Amino acid sequence: MTDLLSLLPPGMPSPTSLPGIALIGAALLVSYIILQAIYNLTLHPLASHPGPFLHRASFFPYLYRQVTGTLPLDMLAFHARYGPVVRISPDQLSFSDPQAWKDIYGHRSPGQPEFPKPYFFYRAKNLPPSLLSESRENHGTLRRLMAHGFSERSMRAQEGIIGGYVNMLINGLRNASGGFGGEQGEGRNGVSEKEKEGVRVARSTGEKEGKPPVPVNMVSWYNWTTFDVISDLAFGEPFGCLKKAEYDPWVDAIGKGVRFGTVLMAIRTLGLEDVLLPIIENLSNKARRFHRKRTMDRLERRVNLTKERPDFMEGLLQKKEEWGMDMERLAANAGLLIIAGSETTATLLSGATYLLLKHPEAMKKLTEEVRSTFKSEEEITLSSVGSLEYMLACLNEAMRVYPPVPIGMPRVVPKGGAKVAGTFVPEGTVVAVWQWATNHNEQHFVEPFEFHPERWMHDPQFANDRLDAVQPFNVGPRNCLGRNLAIAEMRLILAKIVFNFDMQLANHGKDWLDQRGFIVWDKHPLPVYLTPVERNGV
Ligand code: HEM
């Protein structure tokens, strides 16, 4: 050993000293990364698939794009460069062919296994599973139990609850847009501290042009409404956001959590969960205890209700003993419903509002449809808005241009491998269709970046559009359970707003869609001037 040490070049630290150990550690790490890269590029089962060079060699550039929120957008350029199948990280393929929706996520014929959901994306080791993360074996039964709250019958029974919050939204907007000024107005118009600066600029522009004095931040109002609706349907009581015209800490935490979720996924992808998660949990202990106590208190109040209620929990509660549903699992599913059902719907409503206001022709057509279909506020209900065809086209087009979930929902190719959109994929590969990129692919759509609701109205100009490429709710056995409710709720909210107000964007200059995409978008405030429509002199 002493002889070996004497071979070291002069000036090198001794391998038994601290700098020496650090140097050896660094050399081992670099060698590991190089060997991994060589393996990923040559012997890995996906080695022959094309893809961005660095992403094929290592996870790091992919994860960097993921945690900085550019990945869903970058995916479009990757497909433009490499074609319909791209190797986006050492073990992941992205598909842009619409056929891939069915092949990856669709229902299987008997004997064919589903593509399971990967652990790194869906499951936290320390939490009980929800419907979203439940194993394939348990998913079907749990889904049937929960589907009870989403049936046609339940939705009809929920009309009163949902309609009540939408009316609160309309009243709140009426007050916030015109009735208040100065500091009081600031508190009531949905503008948080962080957002105030943008709105101040918007307001002064509006005043110069003789507009109503207070723009309202539609992102906040939509969020408050959808969170109150879903909380009522999941816990039996709202968050009270609409009443107070401010965010509840629970709701605020969800917004931050969604962004943090991508960091968590990166940690799991690198296999560092056991090391880093306890540290993160320790740092956020106080906030987590607060959040957990409020969830459990709410849940307990709902569980203790003796009267039947047409909400999401009723089906689960009726079978809770039979299914061994303890409070932890009930809380996991109530939490899922709130996260899945409110942020997504509010995001799409915000995007649709922006896109309509940027396209006055479409807004004019929609306004005509709504105001000619309904003569009074009371006629606008969850069921009656089903007849608004142009409205549905606008929402569909908004979901194409600005899908609330812009990423690809990952699945794992099962044993033996499988064909996806005509390409054989080896087992264990993570595959997905990335929504934003697929929806903006010029091979699928004429003018993919333009907002044309007419695509969805059989306009011959768009006859060759691949409308089947747009799947905002996903397809197959694990598609969105709340799809019908989401569409009905969005139609109702937008119809009531268009019926009651003329709208105008407060800051026309900025492209509001220029956002970073995590699991959902990191939305900017959307300040809008609202002018109440006068009817019968009112
Ligand atoms: C515009 C609104 C919405 C969009 C774009 C949307 C999108 C999605 C997507 C893409 C999935 C599949 C996730 C995956 O494959 O991992 C999903 C699942 C789910 N969504 Fe939605 N969603 C919306 C609204 C809602 C609403 C209103 C609810 C309920 C209140 C809801 C409840 C669920 C549930 C429970 C699942 C899990 C289903 C399962 O795994 O069986 N969603 N949603």
From TrEMBL:
Family matches, as InterPro entries: Cyt_P450 (IPR001128), Cyt_P450_CS (IPR017972), Cyt_P450_E_grp-I (IPR002401), Cyt_P450_sf (IPR036396), Cytochrome_P450_monoxygenase (IPR050121)
Cross-referenced SUPFAM superfamilies: Cytochrome P450
GO terms for MF: heme binding; iron ion binding; monooxygenase activity; oxidoreductase activity, acting on paired donors, with incorporation or reduction of molecular oxygen
Annotated TM spans: 20-39, 330-357
UniProt entry keywords in alphabetical sequence: Antibiotic biosynthesis, Heme, Iron, Membrane, Metal-binding, Monooxygenase, Oxidoreductase, Transmembrane, Transmembrane helix
Residue ranges with Basic and acidic residues bias: 191-211
Region ranges (Disordered): 180-211
Annotated binding of heme, by residue: 480
GO biological process: antibiotic biosynthetic process
Lineage top rank: taxon: Eukaryota
Cofactor: heme
Residues spanning the signal sequence: none
A Pfam family reported for this protein in Swiss-Prot or TrEMBL: p450
Biological or metabolic pathway of the protein: Antibiotic biosynthesis
PANTHER family: CYTOCHROME P450, P450, PUTATIVE (EUROFUNG)-RELATED
Protein family: Belongs to the cytochrome P450 family.
Name this polypeptide is given: Cytochrome P450
Source organism (scientific name): Pseudoneurospora amorphoporcata
